[in-house]
């Protein structure tokens, strides 16, 4: 299966660079401590002065632009993060969390599931997970790398996330957040510890009904487009333990437009490409990987256990 993953484009590189700006600033401040307490205090004061200057500039920009332009600014991840730092974001935490959940809802829907916001109180976000997503073999990947990533990016001030099962499906109370979510801000290297979002702009090249092989983070995956939606799976057939290289999308006889199954070219097992890779002619399940648009870039979440 060919490796279609190329170099990240300039925009993606810039985005990654600015995401690490906070860490680089802290490193420089720590280095200034070598010059003594006074040097450290002066460095911190310099950072505050520059930060206040840019904060005042951002506030003035928000006053001058019309509501439509303001919403476009807020939709940009980098600008939104700066507005949050300066306390200028026009949306409250509840609105931002709801928007974050809307961004991952199409992915959850492909698993036959959904997520709803119950409430946000005292820094705790409570969510309700419903549908077959709860029992999907990649549910931990979905939760940790998709839902939490989106929520924490939109509302970095939250302290924890709790998930409750839908009452119609289970009598269980709250599922321990510690068992489902990685505490992103508690780890020194959270991305490396649990997985990585990798920008894959080449996915956009897939046409409707097309299947392609990619190497992402050292892991060979199979990607396909059904209508406007993209789906990514680990390149492994659980039925015969072989690669899915050569698989093609097919529509089952009598099923509506939008139905799409992947047939393993080795054992001919059929998997529902739209609904989390569930096998339609027997037992088994492909291993789906989250694919989302992050900071305007198509990205795939490759967890540590998958990438090895």
UniProtKB/TrEMBL annotation:
One matching Pfam family = NifU
In the record, what terms sit under GO molecular function?
Answer: 2 iron, 2 sulfur cluster binding; iron ion binding; monooxygenase activity; oxidoreductase activity, acting on paired donors, with incorporation or reduction of molecular oxygen
Keywords for the protein's UniProt record, in alphabetical order: 2Fe-2S, Iron, Iron-sulfur, Metal-binding
Q: Does the keyword Iron-sulfur apply?
A: yes
Task: State the source organism's domain of life.
Answer: Bacteria
**Gene Ontology BP, a term:** iron-sulfur cluster assembly
Q: Where is the Rieske domain?
A: 198-300
- What InterPro entries does this protein's entry cite? FSCA_dom_sf (IPR034904), NIF_FeS_clus_asmbl_NifU_C (IPR001075), Rieske_2Fe-2S (IPR017941), Rieske_2Fe-2S_sf (IPR036922)
Q: Which PROSITE patterns match?
A: RIESKE
The question of whether Metal-binding is a record keyword is answered with yes
What exactly does this protein do?
Answer: May be involved in the formation or repair of [Fe-S] clusters present in iron-sulfur proteins.
Task: Specify the protein name.
Answer: Rieske domain-containing protein
């Amino acid at each position: 299966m060919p490796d279609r993953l190329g170099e990240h484009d300039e925009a993606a590189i810039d985005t990654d660079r600015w995401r690490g700006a906070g860490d680089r600033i802290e490193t420089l401040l720590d280095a200034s401590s070598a010059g003594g307490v006074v040097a450290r205090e002066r460095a911190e004061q310099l950072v505050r002065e520059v930060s206040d200057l840019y904060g005042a500039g951002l506030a003035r920009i928000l006053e001058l632009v019309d509501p439509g332009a303001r919403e476009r600014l807020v939709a940009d991840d980098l600008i939104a993060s700066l507005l949050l730092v300066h306390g200028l974001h026009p949306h409250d935490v509840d609105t931002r969390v709801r928007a974050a959940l809307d961004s991952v809802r199409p992915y959850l829907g492909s698993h036959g599931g959904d997520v709803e916001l119950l409430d946000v109180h005292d820094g705790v976000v409570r969510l309700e997970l419903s549908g077959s997503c709860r029992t999907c073999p990649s549910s931990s990947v979905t939760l940790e790398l998709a839902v939490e990533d989106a929520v924490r990016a939109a509302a970095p001030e939250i302290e924890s996330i709790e998930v409750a099962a839908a009452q119609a499906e289970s009598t269980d109370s709250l599922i321990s957040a510690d068992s489902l979510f990685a505490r992103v801000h508690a780890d020194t290297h959270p991305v490396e510890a649990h997985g990585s979002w990798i920008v894959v702009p080449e996915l956009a090249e897939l046409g409707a009904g097309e299947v392609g092989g990619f190497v992402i983070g050292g892991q060979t995956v199979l990607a396909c487009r059904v209508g406007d939606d993209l789906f990514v799976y680990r390149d492994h057939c659980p039925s015969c333990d072989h690669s899915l290289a050569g698989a093609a999308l097919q529509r089952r006889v009598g099923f509506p437009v939008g139905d799409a199954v992947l047939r393993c070219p080795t054992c001919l097992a059929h998997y529902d490409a739209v609904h989390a890779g569930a096998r339609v002619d027997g037992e088994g399940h492909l291993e789906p990987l989250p694919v989302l648009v992050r900071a305007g870039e198509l990205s795939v979440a490759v967890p540590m256990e998958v990438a090895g």
